Amino acid sequence: MKSVLIVIPTYNEKDNITELLSEVFKSVPQVNVLIVDDNSPDGTGKIVDDLVANNTYNDRLFVMHRSGKLGLGTAYIQGFQWGMQRGYELLFSMDADFSHDPKYLPEMIALAENNDLVIGSRYVKGGGTQNWGFIRRLISKGGSLYARIVLLANVHDFTGGFNCYHKNFLERLNLDTVFSKGYCFQIEMKFRHVLMKAKIKEMPIIFCDRVNGKSKMSSNIFKEAVINVLRLSLMRGKIKNMMKNGISDD
Ligand SMILES: Nc1nc2c(ncn2[C@@H]2O[C@H](COP(=O)(O)OP(=O)(O)O)[C@@H](O)[C@H]2O)c(=O)[nH]1
Ligand SMILES: [Mg+2]
């Protein structure tokens, strides 16, 4: 079995993190988890520190502390780099707010055996969203469709954050050159996999809106995403050059 690291960025998740970690390790006891906390004012980082100090999960839990709210994209990049340096073969991105149900982890890990990228997908048959208002649904589904059209790429859930990446593809895509911050990060990561001709599997998931804590989504992030997708599209050739192992044009 491949070694697995689940990277979970946190910002003010004190009401979710303890329970979430317990659910993750119940669902997949063989994995390791890295929490990337941006000095959450609500003390999320300290809660995780205590779990690590008490060795609640037998050395399977790690925490990276950053100085302040530096954004989701850089949290994932640093988290993935930490994991790649330590030789993990599969690296997950996952939210701390229970939108990404840990029950899906075993199936995603199994699918990663024969696929280069497994996307927990809301927008394929069997997937969906729960407890999201009309506007949020429209923004998310519309955003994915917009990216799919503008980037000419056959991915249905471009914006989702529940994904299983392979170390060798993360190496090839050259994480240091990923420039999208915030929510666009997931779009750029998937786009780079499309450019690498990775075998991509979208596994249906039901995404539930968070019950505890607040979403960090804002209209600025939305505007940034619209512009960034256009930028990604215009930079198709340049991105290929930024990636390693000479990805050929076709
Ligand atoms: N480390 C870190 N985590 C963040 C940041 N912004 C959001 N998160 C975390 O990223 C995940 C997704 O954020 P969330 O607000 O739930 O976004 P939404 O689900 O799209 O509304 C959650 O686990 C957040 O705690 C950030 O700037 N830094
Ligand atoms: Mg969320």
Q: What is the structure about, briefly put?
A:
With 250 residues, the protein is an alpha/beta fold.
Could you walk me through the main structural features you see in this protein, from its secondary elements to its overall organization?
The chain has helices at 17-27, 44-53, 72-85, 105-111, 134-150, 167-173, 184-195, 219-234, 236-242, and strands at residues 4-10, 32-37, 61-65, 90-93, 117-121, 128-130, 163-166, 200-204, 206-208. It is an alpha/beta fold and 250 residues long. It has a single domain (4-242), classed as Spore Coat Polysaccharide Biosynthesis Protein SpsA, Chain A. The strands form two sheets. Strands 3-2-1-4-7-5-8 form a seven-stranded mixed β-sheet, sandwiched between helices. The structure holds guanosine-5'-diphosphate (GDP) and magnesium ion. Magnesium ion binds next to loops.
